[in-house]
Amino acid sequence: MARFNKVQVITAMKETGMVPVFYHEDLEVCKQVISACYKGGVRVFEFTNRGDFAHELFGELIKWAAKDCPELILGVGTVVDAPTASLYLQLGANFIVGPNFNPEIAPVCNRRLVPYAPGCGSVSEISNAQAAGCDVTKVFPAGNVGGPSFVKNVLSPLRWSNLMVTGAVSPDQENLSAWIKAGVLCVGMGSKLFPKDVIAAKNWQYITDKCIEALGYIVSARS
Question: What is the second-level CATH architecture of the domain 4-217?
């Protein structure tokens, strides 16, 4: 069962403005990465369902995080069907994210009052997802569907929208400022925040420092 309710999840996404996105088959690496992000100020983290036995890793991480990172809201990404969403909800996922919008997932999450943020690439998809009860919609792949200008133009007619963007997001000032000023609720960031060489070298301090830096750019852009 989720430790954080829907309001807490969406509020944390908005307040921090950034959701790291990560998967690794090694449990200890996952713990170190999550811990590094937490030390850097991250409070919402998306573990992606991208490998064999990923749910088993998540089951361990959710229990570990409750003790070692008590304020961290841990959710799951790359969920494309309702059975998988149900599996992760049973393990305690605080939110579900997908690369696409599957209307069968929405009622599963709504029944538990857990946010479902589906991937959308058009105004129609965003509107349909909202009609299904999705309080947050993910623009994906954000760089390909139009970048910050797409977000800005969507928010003109659908000004109530809470948009998360993933894809073409990097932890530098110019990039983050453009997304934030366009009006996103938050950004999702993966490979640019976790370079393969950094993970291989187990340079966890780099990740902490980069999170602090990125969150600082977000605060600056909002002011």
Answer: Alpha-Beta Barrel (3.20)
